[in-house]
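INTERNAL TRANSFER SHEET
From: sequence group
To: structure group
Subject: DUF6917 domain-containing protein

Please process the attached sequence and return the structure record in the designated field. Keep the field labels unchanged so the import script can parse them.
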Amino acid sequence: MGDPYKTGMFKGVNPYVRKKPLKGKIIVVLDGKYEERGLKLIVQPSRCIKVGEVHELIITDEARGPGDIVNRIAYVGFFEVKESAVIVSGDEVKINGRVVGKIAGYDETHMPNHYNIVVNAPELVTGNEMGIELDSEIVIG
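Return from structure group:
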């Protein structure tokens, strides 16, 4: 048997009944936008993220999900994970209590170094444009 997401076992079913939110701190604030980034979101809607890992947060205003290509992006920043969690497409992303958007999916371009965690938002706005500071709290869940 293969990957349950690739084989469609969970189609229309959300197996994530209860889960803890991921908590972390911003360690790099980014400022940059691209119209043709070409991020390839993996088909899996979830990722296990461990304490101490560092991952990148990217915003798109293209309504996309797992398995899609995302071109229009704005860089937000890198964060360090303070509490391990399973994050899932559709999870809300908050920075300092402010809703940034919802997870669209994950790009593995830079793995095993870090995931690009792509977030759907109403507009392309960078971390610098949002006024995010170092050590800002990020919560996903």
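Handover comment: The mean pLDDT is 92. The first strand starts at residue 22 and ends at 29.
Transfer complete.
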